[in-house]
């Protein structure tokens, strides 16, 4: 892509640690989160269009402004033919901003989808219809995609997984405490049906049928906790065997229709789900199946659909589920949508303005030192036997890192983009991504691809690739600043790097070997000690309660809590590599940087959703839960034993 001239607002030069955010009246030994973030918490309200706000949300705002400048420049349309990608980016953004154009084309788009469903005459062609919906990114009943094969990390494998629920988790359909949400959800279904032109009396009847079927799907679905289990979710099965498990579903028809012909084997995330799903489909009337698919098609497209459907979607998912009071400005949704559909093209322009060589160099050094510390930590572990250590060290030896942006940016040559339909552009992008993922099934793994786009303010560890990935979007101030002190950068981004690396050794990641195969490299003795140590963290986090009195689920969040604890410990060890005699004040800065990297708050609605479905703990406990396990913290802040942040018994894993 040719360099374009525009005046983008450069990244904020904010320091990683901001002493003015500290609540000086708070006691760091009793509640460190409150101490490190107290003034921020007091002076920063959650904006109406957000359900959660973090100190690092500044990065997102700043990135949005940069991306807006880039896209506005591409919108002018005077890009030369060689700039086909920037032209497409500009068009995609324009189409999203063109609300009147989208109103007409989305209405037609929804009508066409519903017509396609209504045309289904018998269950014989049911799987053909599903295939066609899945291709467009609409996933009633289940979804299909390719992933790296956990049994053979060199190849991809097609995977089918449960799906098609409008509420976040199966518990929402039955739990007593969610009865109000269920009632609101039913209202939302009815309201959406009415918007698409269904008569009031029909809408009431259909809503009940739809909810009943969703409820039945929820009942046979895997829980959020089971979905975290790499063993339970890996079930390579032949196409014939799948047909036997679920006779009421014509898989041959389905696979042919989506062009999945490269392999006879696929991974079935929950075989029991598909067994029961087939019988559910078998005993449900065709008209009820169609009613549910109509609803699913409306629901899964409403974010980019007609304004009435967008608003109705927001009323339920924004207001009721997340406590947001107003919608995000439309241009921000448009940028998120461009990033979602053409993220690497957008990212290629982003890094030119927002990621300099000094950032890359510093991030590389941090990664190097944290990785080195992990190696030393494993070598010194007293509870792990030598045989298991060999496996662990092999794993670190092969650990790959991707920092900033990919070496090669993917092409969007096959994506058709119009300038008047956000709806159709999004479906076209879904089709492109679907065809690509199916084409990959059974092919050798491409180790150069990225799972996040460069502007993304997030990072990940992928156990099947055995790699950590840090996009340029998260290596931004105030989380990271090449000009801030080492103490600050190690406490903040160093801890995140350590966190992602530790995922390779959390309850789930530790079941993969150095190449990314789901293969046990643990001796029974070491595995038993590990389990016991993990139980300590389960108990610790399960004992925490929110201000509303809701208890955390220490089992669901175990992997993340292990990574949080390991992450800060590794960051500290890595920081020691820069100076063996860290001055007292720097040690405090290190911990404050960690605390302030998690300054955040969320609406009570969002908090409940997070506790039920998110594998991460709430910000307060990500800070207090971790630092209270580190004696170095108590020493730095001179806490005495028995204070909340200096308990007598600590949990320790790595
Ligand atoms: Zn994590």
Description:
The protein is an alpha/beta fold and about 650 residues long. It has 2 domains: about 20-65 and about 335-410 and about 450-635, Collagenase (Catalytic Domain) (3-Layer(aba) Sandwich), CATH 3.40.390.10; about 100-320, Orthogonal Bundle (Neutral endopeptidase, domain 2), CATH 1.10.1380.10. The protein is built from 23 helices and 9 strands. The chain has helices at about 30-45, 55-75, 85-95, 100-120, 125-135, 180-195, 200-220, 240-245, 250-260, 270-285, 285-300, 305-320, 330-355, 355-380, 385-400, 420-440, 485-500, 525-540, 560-575, 585-595, 605-615, 620-625, 630-635; strands at about 50-55, 140-150, 155-160, 235-240, 265-270, 400-405, 460, 465-470, 600. A hairpin with a 4-residue loop joins strand 7 and strand 8. The site of zinc ion has 4 residues, from helix 19.
């Amino acid at each position: 892509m040719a360099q374009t001239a525009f005046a983008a607002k450069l990244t904020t030069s904010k320091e990683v640690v901001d002493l003015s955010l500290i609540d000086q009246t708070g006691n760091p030994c009793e509640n460190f989160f409150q101490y490190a973030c107290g003034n921020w918490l007091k002076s920063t309200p959650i904006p109406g269009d957000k359900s959660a706000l973090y100190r690092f949300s500044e990065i997102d705002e700043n990135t949005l402004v940069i991306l807006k400048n880039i896209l506005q420049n591409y919108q002018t349309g005077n890009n030369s033919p060689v700039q086909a990608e920037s032209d497409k980016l500009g068009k995609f953004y324009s189409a999203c901003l063109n609300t009147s154009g989208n109103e007409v084309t989305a209405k037609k788009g929804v009508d066409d989808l519903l017509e396609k469903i209504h045309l289904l005459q018998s269950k014989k062609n049911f799987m053909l219809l599903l295939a066609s919906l899945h291709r467009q990114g609409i996933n009633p009943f289940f979804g299909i995609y390719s992933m790296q094969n956990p049994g053979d990390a060199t190849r991809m494998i097609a995977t089918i997984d449960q799906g098609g629920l409008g509420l976040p988790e199966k518990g929402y359909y039955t739990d007593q405490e969610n009865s109000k949400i269920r009632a609101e959800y039913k209202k939302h279904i009815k309201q959406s049906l009415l918007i698409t032109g269904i008569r009031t009396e029909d809408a009431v009847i259909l809503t009940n049928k739809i909810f009943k079927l969703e409820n039945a799907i929820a009942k046979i679905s895997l829980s959020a906790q089971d979905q975290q289990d790499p063993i339970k979710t890996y079930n390579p099965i032949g196409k014939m065997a799948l047909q036997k498990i679920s006779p009421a579903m014509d898989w041959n028809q389905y696979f042919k229709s989506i062009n999945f012909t490269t392999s006879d084997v696929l991974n079935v995330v929950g075989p029991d789900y598909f067994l029961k799903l087939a019988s559910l489909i078998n005993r449900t009337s065709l008209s009820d199946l169609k009613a549910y698919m109509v609803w699913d098609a409306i629901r899964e497209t409403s974010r980019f659909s007609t304004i009435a459907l967008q608003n109705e979607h927001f009323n339920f998912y924004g207001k009721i589920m997340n406590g947001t009071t107003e919608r995000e400005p439309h241009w921000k949704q448009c940028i998120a949508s461009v990033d979602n559909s053409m993220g690497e093209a957008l990212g290629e322009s982003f890094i030119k303005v927002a990621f300099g060589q000094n950032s890359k160099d510093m991030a590389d050094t941090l990664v190097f030192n944290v990785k080195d510390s992990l190696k030393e930590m494993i070598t010194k572990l007293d509870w792990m036997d030598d045989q298991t250590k060999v496996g662990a060290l092999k794993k670190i030896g092969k650990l790959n890192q991707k920092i900033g942006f990919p070496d090669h940016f993917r092409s969007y040559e096959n994506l058709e983009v119009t300038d008047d339909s956000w709806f159709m552009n999004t479906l076209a992008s879904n089709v492109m991504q679907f065809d690509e993922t199916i084409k990959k099934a059974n092919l050798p793994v491409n180790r150069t691809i990225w799972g996040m786009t460069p502007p993304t303010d997030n990072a990940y560890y992928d156990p099947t690739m055995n790699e950590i990935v840090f996009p340029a979007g998260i290596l931004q101030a105030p989380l990271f600043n090449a000009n801030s002190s080492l103490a600050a950068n190690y406490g903040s981004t160093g801890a995140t790097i350590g966190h992602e690396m530790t995922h390779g050794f959390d309850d789930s990641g530790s079941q993969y070997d150095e190449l990314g195969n789901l293969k046990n490299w643990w001796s029974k003795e070491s595995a038993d000690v590990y389990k016991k140590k993990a139980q300590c963290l389960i108990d610790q986090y399960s004992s925490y309660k929110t201000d509303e009195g809701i208890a955390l689920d220490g089992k669901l969040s175990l992997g993340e809590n292990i990574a949080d604890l390991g992450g800060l410990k590794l960051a500290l060890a890595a920081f020691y590599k820069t100076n063996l005699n860290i001055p007292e004040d720097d040690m405090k800065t290190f911990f404050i940087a960690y605390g302030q990297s998690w300054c955040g708050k969320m609406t009570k609605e969002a908090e409940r959703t997070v506790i039920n479905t998110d594998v991460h703990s709430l910000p307060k406990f990500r800070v207090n839960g971790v630092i209270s396990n580190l004696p170095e913290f108590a020493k730095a802040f001179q806490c005495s034993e028995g204070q909340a942040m200096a308990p007598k018994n600590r949990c320790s894993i790595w």
